[in-house]
Write a structure and sequence with these properties.
The chain has 230 residues and is mostly helical. It has one domain (4-227): Hypothetical protein af1432, CATH 1.10.3210. Helix content is 65%, strand content 0%. It has twelve helices and no strands. The chain has helices at 4-18, 27-46, 53-61, 78-88, 93-105, 108-112, 118-122, 124-137, 139-152, 170-179, 184-190, 202-227. Helix 2 packs antiparallel against helix 3 (53-61) and helix 3 (53-61) crosses helix 5 (93-105). The N and C termini lie far apart (50 Å). The mean pLDDT is 94. It holds the Pfam family HD. This is HD/PDEase domain-containing protein. InterPro entries: HD/PDEase_dom (IPR003607), HD_domain (IPR006674). Residues 22-147 form the HD/PDEase domain.
Length: 230
């Protein structure tokens, strides 16, 4: 794990950035992802994998720095913020570069882009942070976060006339984000129900199933309540 001399100022930096975001991407989300990532990392080490716990913790803390959904024109990139911060705190330059690279590649959007290379396929630390972030996007917290973000973007919670875009492509995802359309329930069909099958680590896969099942049950109940078939 990270030493206090880097962890404490990193936490303060993240808290400052997350204070400008809505509750779906606040400090509490980041802390859950950090704790989940460390849990997965410990599980992976017990399975014999080589894992840099310090890189995992710092990358998990910084995983939403520079999130494109909140970026404004002229804002520094996540990479710039992270490397500047870690450089000022004399963090190992090789590890700093790895942290920045993980943050740049952790998102669902980047995975949709379909960029394949050896590093993305084999970096254990990347896979751990990706799985931790996905786990917080599904299940009970995932349901609340989806509603919170829809409220922040002033999107409907449920539109019975809307057809979800199943198997959404990168281009469709980008276009939807730019147009600020799509109700919360469509988001389950377009993204959240897909995350279970995108998990990378054994422990991530195991934890995802229960959370996935909870979301399926929730959406079924939304549709049942709307149809008034109870």
């Amino acid at each position: 794990m990270a030493q206090p001399e880097i962890r404490t100022p990193a936490e303060e930096l993240v808290k400052q950035h997350m204070a400008a975001y809505d509750p779906s991407h606040d400090w509490f989300h980041v802390d859950r992802v950090r704790r989940q990532a460390l849990k997965i990392a410990r599980d992976e080490k017990e399975r014999g994998a080589e894992v840099d716990m310090e890189v995992v913790e710092i990358a998990a803390l910084f995983h939403d720095i520079g999130d494109f959904k909140y970026q404004k024109e002229g804002d520094p990139s996540g990479r710039e913020i992270i490397l500047d911060f870690l450089g000022k705190h004399h963090f190992d330059s090789r590890k700093a570069e790895l942290v920045a690279k993980i943050v740049e590649n952790v998102s669902f959007r980047k995975e949709l882009a379909g960029i394949k290379d050896v590093w993305r396929d084999t970096c254990t630390e990347l896979h751990i942070v990706q799985d931790a972030d996905k786990l917080d996007a599904i299940g009970a917290f995932g349901i609340m976060r989806c509603a919170a973000y829809s409220g922040f973007k002033n999107r409907p919670l449920y539109d019975p006339n809307e057809q979800a875009q199943h198997n959404m492509t990168y281009e469709q995802y980008q276009a939807q984000t730019k147009a600020n359309v799509g109700c919360a329930i469509s988001h389950f069909h377009e993204k959240l129900f897909r995350l279970k099958d995108m998990m990378k680590t054994p422990s991530g896969k195991a934890m995802a199933q229960k959370r996935h099942d909870m979301m399926v049950y929730f959406v079924q109940n939304i549709e049942q309540e709307y149809s008034m078939d109870e």
